[in-house]
Amino acid sequence: MTKEKKPKDAKEQETRNKDQDLPSEEIAKTSEELAAEYLDGWKRCQAEFENYKKRQVESQKELGGYLIEKLLFDIIPVLDNFRMATGHVPKEAEGSPWVTGIQYIEKQLEDALKGHGVEVMEVKEGDAFDPGVHEAVDYDKEQETRDKKQSETDEEKKEVVAKVLQNGYKIGGRVVRAAKVTVKSS
Question: I need a labelling partner for 29 at 20 to 30 A (CA). Which of 3, 107, 157, 180 fits?
Answer without folding.
Answer: 3
